[in-house]
Design a protein that fits this description.
Rossmann fold; three-stranded antiparallel beta sheet
Length: 210
């Protein structure tokens, strides 16, 4: 069965340093959106880095079963300033072998899914709001067809209005088929997911919460 399995996972940055989290065991399955929550410094982004394979855990394992493609959405939207929003989403589709017409059609569908269908011809960084830019990053990541989508603090730098639009987009991508893990301190973002893993409950190796 495909998915992500965390087995007795724990991390600290030195052998004498404090544990960020410990004894974390959980499984994430395709189609699931899970929020990784916890206080500042609890290791939310660190956990995503371990799952992505960028960081070796201090103990335990993060096992990816039949996960061939991983995409990461960072806090700061980025891209090619002179290209239209839809071009950023269509590029991975073109790279996958679709014709320009097919790629544009699928890109437009993804724009609609995350509430960007009204701005597909805009230039990302000169004309998009912070919330629109973050949703563009979600749509671009989805266009690559990831088995695992890692989203790091998507509303951390946004006002509440823009954060709300991003949270609605996260709620709308549940039918994408892959696993979506969202590191967040935002209660509304967490509520847009199917369930939560609270890293604050694993600071001493004790499992608490949902």
């Amino acid at each position: 069965m495909s998915g992500v399995r965390l087995q007795g996972l724990g991390h600290r940055f030195s052998t004498e340093g404090p544990w960020l989290f410990r004894d974390l065991t959980d499984t994430f399955v395709p189609g699931e959106r899970c929020a990784v929550t916890g206080p500042s410094g609890s290791g939310k982004s660190t956990l995503l880095s371990i799952i992505a394979g960028w960081l070796k855990p201090a103990e335990g394992d993060a096992v990816l079963d039949d996960i061939a493609k991983v995409q990461w959405v960072f806090q700061n939207p980025h891209g090619v300033p002179r290209r239209a929003a839809i071009d950023h989403i269509a590029l991975p589709l073109l790279a996958a072998g679709l014709t320009p017409k097919e790629a544009d059609a699928q890109a437009e569908e993804l724009c609609e899914r995350v509430g960007l269908d009204h701005i597909i011809d805009r230039r990302p960084f000169s004309q998009l709001s912070g919330g629109e830019g973050q949703r563009l990053m979600l749509a671009r990541a989805l266009s690559a067809g990831p088995d695992l989508l890692l989203v790091d603090e998507p509303t951390a730098q946004l006002d509440r209005r823009n954060a709300h639009t991003v949270n609605r987009a996260i709620a709308a991508i549940g039918d994408a088929g892959g696993i979506v893990l969202v590191a967040t301190h935002d209660a509304e973002t967490a509520a847009s997911c199917d369930r939560q893993v609270d890293l604050g409950a694993y600071a001493a190796g004790e499992r608490v919460g949902s």
